Each structure stands twice: as structure tokens, then as C-alpha cells.
Amino acid sequence: MFDKQEIQNTEPKSHLILGVITARGGSKGIPDKNIKTLGGKPLIAYTIEAARQSALLTHCIVSTDSEEIADVARAHGGKVPFLRPADLAADHVPHVPVLQHAIRFMEEQEGREFEYVVILQPTSPFRLPADIDETLRLLIESGAESAVTLVEVANADHPVKAKRIFDGRVLPYAMEEPEGARRQDLPTAYRRSGAVYAMRRDTIMTGRLYGENVVGHVVPRERSVDIDEPLDWLKAEWMLEDLRRKGYML
After folding, report:
1. What is the pTM of this model?
2. Most C-beta atoms within 10 A of its C-beta, which of 85, 89, 139, 143?
3. Which of 103, 42, 108 is nearest to 70 (CA)?
4. What distance lies between CA 103 and its chain's CA centroid?
5. Closest listed residue to residue 23, CA positions, set 50, 61, 62
6. DSSP state, residue 7
């Protein structure tokens, strides 16, 4: 965890909010992905820096099973109060038990309960501190169970274009595509960007990630990437150069 007195940030904090940077070792698609160098620094460093500059996070930790990732995280200002147990480090383990473990550990350390929890994945390196804070504000002010960052879906990936093959026939996967529909005729569609997932502490502790009432904060496509495979990494390298040309401090 970090002490917000370390950061020059004067916004008052009325809620106890835990940020959890999830960084499992053993990536298969891109070896050592979370600590691979992107634009001169380890991938995880981008997320640590954004979390440290958030005005609303009161605590933030890195949850990892890897000593190497832990060392790199600490070198870039991250706090790693534990190594994640092996049974929570397999690639099939969902977010909920990982977060429950982090919450229980931190609440025992702090002697009090958090109100909100935020998942920050290193694979979305171009989030800004404002993305974290605006998602949290939306969650708190709306009274929802969770809030996520969303990004507009590109025309080529619009859900109306998704198809399935049934008995040799091409059919709509979820919704009918009007014949001859132009791009501007399609309704705006969004997907989760992967940058910020915020939820009430009790939502997680009752075994749910999102709950039924979910709200969304829209982020621009120029900063939205979720690195999963080598092609995503190449895209991220191009995006980083473009963002730096535009004056983003990343």
C-alpha cells in the first residue's frame, strides 16, 4: 500500500478505497508480460504511476505470485505486502477470490473495512489517473454496485457484424444486421476497455464482480488497449509513440 502523504495531492478523501494491481506471473502469450519493457519502462510501471497519482485511492497494492514482478513493482514505487498464494495464481483463477484475499489481508493490516475496491490491470497501460477517479466518482455518486471503463467499438467490430454458423448457414450471432446498413446508421456500441474496474467492497465479498447495477465511464479509443497477445503489444508500441507526440505524459 502507499501512504497518500507521499503524493502531492490535496483532494479530500472521504472514502476508504483499495486499489489492487493484479499481476500474475507465468504469462503464456507474451512471456514476462507484466515486466516487459514498453517505451523504456516495465509495463507494470504505467499502472503503478497512474495509481499513485489518483486523487481518490487511499491505498494501492500489487497482488502477484512472482518475486521478480514484486521486485520490479517495488523499484517503481509499488507496494507488495504479500506474495499471492499458489492456489490463486493459476491462469484459470477468476478475479473474485484474488480480490477477496487482498481485501482480507489489507483489512487485517489496517484494522478497518474498505468501502470500495478497484482492479487495475497492467495490461491497460494508458489509463490516466483521471480515468480511475472519474470511474470511482461515477460509482460513488450513482450508488451502483460497480463501475467500469468503456470504449466505443470500432465499426469493423460492431456486434451487429458478429455471425455464427448453424447447419451450414450464416446467421446473426446476437442481432440482425440490416441489409445495406451504413456505418453511421449503426447504434453506438461499447465494450469494457479493461482499464478500470471499481466496485463496492461488499459486492466482491459476496462473491460477485459486477453485481446487477453497473455504470460506465467512457474513455477514448486512442488510449484503449488490452495487451493479451504479441499483436496487441505491437499495437501498444505504436499507440505509445502517438500519445507521446500528442503530449501525453506516459
Report:
1. 0.90
2. 139
3. 42
4. 17
5. 62
6. S
Q: Choose the weakest-confidence range: 22-26, 197-201, 241-245.
A: 22-26
Cell 468501502 sits at which residue? 115
In the beta sheet, which residues pair with residue 116? 17, 200
In the numeric block, which cell numbers belong to residue 92? 484459470
Alpha-carbon distance of 160 to 175, in angstroms, equals 6
In degrees, rounded to 5, the angle at the alpha carbon of residue 96 between the alpha carbons of residues 218 and 207 is 105
Q: What is the pLDDT of residue 180?
A: 74
The answer to whether residues 223 and 128 touch, using CB atoms and an 8 Å cutoff, is yes
Domain ranges of the chain: 4-152+189-245, 154-188
Phi, psi of 151 (to 5 degrees): -135, 140
Q: How far is CA 171 from CA 153, 157, 166, in A?
A: 21, 16, 7
Cα separation, 124 vs 115, in Å, equals 24
Cβ atoms of 125 and 227 within 8 Å: the answer is yes
CATH superfamily of 4-152+189-245: Spore Coat Polysaccharide Biosynthesis Protein SpsA; Chain A (3.90.550.10)
pLDDT digits (tens, 9 = 90+) for 164-192: 999 999 999 888 888 777 777 788 999 99
